[in-house]
Amino acid sequence: MATAMAWALVILVGLLLLVLTVIAIVLLFLTALHDSIGPLPPRDGDTSIDVDKSPLLRHLPFLKTRLAWTPLGVFPTPVHTARLPNLNGPHKDGHFFIKREDLSSPLYGGNKVRTLQHQLAACAIHYEKHPEAKFLTIGSSGSNQNVATVVHGQAMGLPIHPTLAKPDAPDFDNTLNVLSILSFNPSVVRVWTRPCDMITAYLRALFFNADKIFVMGGNNMLGVLGQIGGILELAEQIEAGELPDVDRLYVAVGSTCTLAGLVLGVCLARHLGLKAHGRKNAWFLFSLSISRYIPLFPRFALARVSKYLKEQGLNVELEPLAVKFLKESVEIVTDKELIGAYGTHSVPSLAAAAFDKIIQVEGKQPEWMASLGEDERNKAMTPWLCGHFVAKSFAKLVDDLQQESEKPAKPFVRLFWQIKSWIQPHGGADEWSRLNQLASINV
């Protein structure tokens, strides 16, 4: 009996050690993935980039000599007014504002432009020192992050190797993204049908060679820092009177990179004394407290970025402020009907996307759009409510507007953060030939 109990104890301890070892290996891998592209100082004496165009570097000037940055797009992105006519009955319109991140670049816009500003700047410096390096991505087949990294990375002369790590639903928007990637004719495209090839490439990049990996959604410290700049830019626009202070901001949440940056940005703006973000905003995400210790989760991002900024000279610890903001000012949307399957429309989001036929939008357009024809400029005023993410947050906005049966005594300011690029890029190569080639070798 004693011998049996001893063996049982040995087996139990062995299983426990095995579980702990697996957890440690997973955390090691995720941490290495998160840190693959880290902060680097800008090139010495480089005057080709006006760093004062970065809201983050303007407000935290001590970062100018410590954190590489490249604009990639045209900023600030405009804020437009929007109206849904007769949403709640005759002459009862739904009113809100739109932050036009979708118009951030003539190459490819959307929220991933800010996500990549510090990452691609660091990669360019790394590539100068390691010309043998390749730059891998991780994303689903319809990933906007994959498209943005290929487009802007190639424009900077970097060898980008996109990875389509999982199939998405057969959605029109997802298909366009795959074809866009292939039209830039990247030398290597990895797909989910060859998982060993993907994993081997990732392990080599993380532990054995000079290659770098753009993590899912760009969700690392540099990506979050880029998104902080977006909310500081919005604070400047509020102070300039372009829109009132915001009561509720609607943003689609995927990797949570954008969300983490916006939360930290609000806390930083308040600390800096900017006359914006003073109201009790309500945003949307799903988060767990344990995620502070797991890379790629929002709490981990809040802790990492806060620690970095404090080490660089910021005179406040942002993490507790951000956690407090999450607890008090973030609404969690977990409606299964609204969320639906990843990467495609749900029934409510598909219904909400139909509002693009009647939505009326007004506001200034970026200077780069002046070269477009009048018809294209008019079309660009209507945001692209794609099924991958954006239409779902828009559905929540529409639902909230419809709950306002009567006009509130005090205007309630709603802002929709438009993250899907208006531009669908084409790199010039024959995407269909490349698709056939890719299919023939990945069956």
TrEMBL record:
Domain Tryptophan synthase beta chain-like PALP as annotated: residue spans: 72-266
Cofactor(s) listed in the protein's UniProt record: pyridoxal 5'-phosphate
Listed transmembrane segments: 6-33
Gene3D superfamilies: 3.40.50.1100
Molecular function, one GO term: D-cysteine desulfhydrase activity
Annotated keywords: Membrane, Pyridoxal phosphate, Transmembrane, Transmembrane helix
Family, as annotated: Belongs to the ACC deaminase/D-cysteine desulfhydrase family.
Full protein name: Tryptophan synthase beta chain-like PALP domain-containing protein
Organism: Aphanomyces euteiches
